[in-house]
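[job 4417] fold queue: 2 targets
>>> target A
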Amino acid sequence: MAETQTRTPMLTDAAAKRVAWIADKQGKPAILRLSVEGGGCSGFQYKFELADAPEDDDLTSQTAEARLVIDPVSLDLVAGSSVDYVESLGGAAFRVENPMAAAGCGCGSSFGI
């Protein structure tokens, strides 16, 4: 059980606040769905979207006022990750710190295993 908890992807406080803010503006629940798709310059890419509710087989984690949900297939590729929200001169974005990724790209939205 302890291994599962340490490998559960989590939102940082900054990401949870941003999800809650976006969800409030759109009149939706503060649930961010993280999924992984084939593509991008490194083989896989992250996809973010607000969800109305978790699916029955989703893994769900709660941080402050927001939840992160991940489907079982994507979970194999993002176990142990954290999702952060960063703002810089180049823009603002959700970023995944993924210990499973062996390679990444400069944009931070694509990775390889």
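>>> target B
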Amino acid sequence: MPFIRVGYMEQQYDDAQLQRMSQVMMEALVDHFDVPTDDCFQVFHAHGKGEFYYSPDYLNVSRSDGLVFIYITCKSGRTVRQKTGLYRQLAHQLSKMVPMRQEDVFIIINENEFADWSFGNGIAQMLLVSEEVSE
């Protein structure tokens, strides 16, 4: 059930590269977060140069205008090992498949609970699923 938003500077990536990013992100979520293969919810946002700012060398990571911000909102409960495995796989696979620089893969995970999701119809579907599992 992760929801992913990807921010990047316009004209850095074409449609085919964005499609590959999408596929790589889904594969990593399946591999490390046990996400079902059909649980794909992603939004890509291109930003003009005047609305995209970053530190080119914060924490000794050399970033370029090819930087992508990957925001992953998901249910809490993943381990540090799962998260760090996801980070490694994303950076490695994106660098090969897009291609892009590993230094330009910036990932943020924001965790929440089942009550924080409605997949449509004004229903908190994940609450219903979690109640069925606990019965």
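[job 4417] complete. Note on B: The first helix runs from residue 15 to 33.
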